[in-house]
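Exam revision sheet. Question 4 asks you to relate a sequence to its structure. Input first:
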Amino acid sequence: MTTRTSTILTHTVCPRCREDKPLTEFSTNPSKKNGHASYCRPCARERLREYRATDIGKLANRVASREYAARNRARNLALREASTTTP
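Answer key, structure tokens:
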């Protein structure tokens, strides 16, 4: 009978900058095996910035903004009215 020992990861390597960093440098992602994102926060931020600079990224961001505005129209109107009525 074999017993499994759990190993707790404290560091991982970011595939973009190739640096070994502590897990606190990575966002959480429950769908990943280790529970953290693949890219460190600075690299993920830069990656997103580069994506949003492309035509596809600009379109995706515009669509997401419009969908958010449509979903939250009533909430946004209520907040806008509350901010204008309060001195």
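Marking note for examiners. Residues 52 and 59 are 8 Å apart (CA to CA).
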